[in-house]
Each structure stands twice: as C-alpha cells, then as structure tokens.
Amino acid sequence: MTVDGFALAHLRRSPLGHLADRFAASSVPGPGGVRLRELPFLTQLNLRLDPTGPAAARAAEALGAPLPTGACQAAGTGALRVLRLGPDEWLVVGPDGAAPTLGDTLRQALGEEPGSVVDVSANRTTLELAGPSARPVLEQGCSLDLHPRAFGPGRCAQTTVAKVQVVLDQLDDEPCYRLLVRDSFAQYLADWLLDAAGESQAPLLASQSAGQSGGNAMKR
C-alpha cells in the first residue's frame, strides 16, 4: 500500500510480532515436538452466495478450488484455503496482499446474482500450531473431538480454544492447525498456547535432559 508514493508496508505491526522470539524458543523438534508461530496479514475474504447457483461454479473456477458444501469442510489449492462457515458462507484465506485482486475476481464471479464479498483480513491474525504434540496441546482448551476419526485434514470449525472464539483449520496429518483469532484476543490465546505447549513438552524435555546426563556420565 502506498500514499502519495510512500510505501506503508513497513509501518504495519502484527498483533503478535513481539512474540516471535518466544514462539521460536518454545518450538521443540522431534517425534514429540510442537511448533507455534504467527502468520500475520493473511488475506481473508468472507464470501456469501447461493451454493446451487451459477455463481458458485464461477467462483470455484476462479479460485481453482471447489467451494466445500459439506459441514465443517475445507479445501485448498496452492496458497489458497476455502473454509465453509455456513450453508451459504465461506472464508477464503490467501497470502498477504492478495485481497484486492482476489476480491475483484470473486465479485466478477458473482455477477448479478445475490451475494457479497467482504474483506475481513484486518479482523483476525493467524496462529499456526504444528507437530506431533499439537493435538494434545489444543485438547487442553478445546471441546471438539480432534481425534483423526472425527477431525482431520480438510476439516474446519468455528469453535473456542481457551474460551476464545476461533476458526480452526487442520491442514495436514502432522498435524498442522491454523487458528484464526480476532486481534483483540490474539495475545491472550498466544500466551495460553505457549503455556499449554510448555506443559505438554515438560516430560519430553525432562526425558531428553536425563538421557543426555546419562550419556555424559557413561563417557566419564
């Protein structure tokens, strides 16, 4: 974005940019590990239209991904994710800066049919929680059944985590989750996730520390 030729991108501040070092320090690799980071400034467009009308097919073609029609379904292609929020409502999530072009494309797909495309990118930031221990961390504060038999890749939900409303999207089997949270609640949710991840990782870190100590003792 520019004003009178002056670039404003460097003036943006993400809600959780100041926690980047804490996120990095809390990340634990390995088979029992977990990683947490912010994905700031993602494009988020609220799309509403008749899922049975011609505009739905045009929108899907423009996105290169179908509009999911099943409850709590998500679909994606490349850098885009399409999350079904309701019978005639989707959230289109894309890379930073894509909102103007993507919004125009979807409005053209709507044509004269009833519907709307609203840029809600500024409403939420995104937290990404990933790793083998990501599900146990989330389960400490989410009432959804997150077991793979009930919630897996291609699933999304509007739910609460630690009593904070989020849009939850599972991307893959690792598992990797995205939590889209309103900016005003982002700090609280990030702090809660950091604490929950620390509690989850404590036994693993203690085991690793004990193993290293035992190995050093044997070397002596």
Structural summary, described in words:
This protein has a single domain, classed as Gyrase A, domain 2. The chain is of the alpha+beta class and 220 residues long. The N and C termini lie far apart (61 Å). It has helices at residues 20-26, 54-63, 99-110, 134-139, 183-219; strands at 2-3, 6-7, 35-39, 43-49, 74-77, 80-86, 89-94, 115-119, 124-130, 156-161, 164-172, 176-182. Strand 5 (74-77) and strand 6 (80-86) form a beta hairpin. It contains 5 helices and 12 strands. Helices cover 33% and strands 30% of the residues. The chain is globular, with a radius of gyration of 20 Å. The relative contact order is 0.17. Strands 3-9-12-11-10 form a 5-stranded antiparallel β-sheet. It has a 5-stranded antiparallel β-sheet with strand order 5-6-7-4-8, with helices on one face.
Give a topology summary.
Blueprint lengths: L1 E2 L2 E2 L12 H7 L8 E5 L3 E7 L4 H10 L10 E4 L2 E7 L2 E6 L4 H12 L4 E5 L4 E7 L3 H6 L16 E6 L2 E9 L3 E7 H37 L1
Give a quick set of tags describing it:
globular; 220 residues; 5-stranded antiparallel beta sheet; 5 helices; single chain; alpha+beta; 33% helix; Gyrase A, domain 2
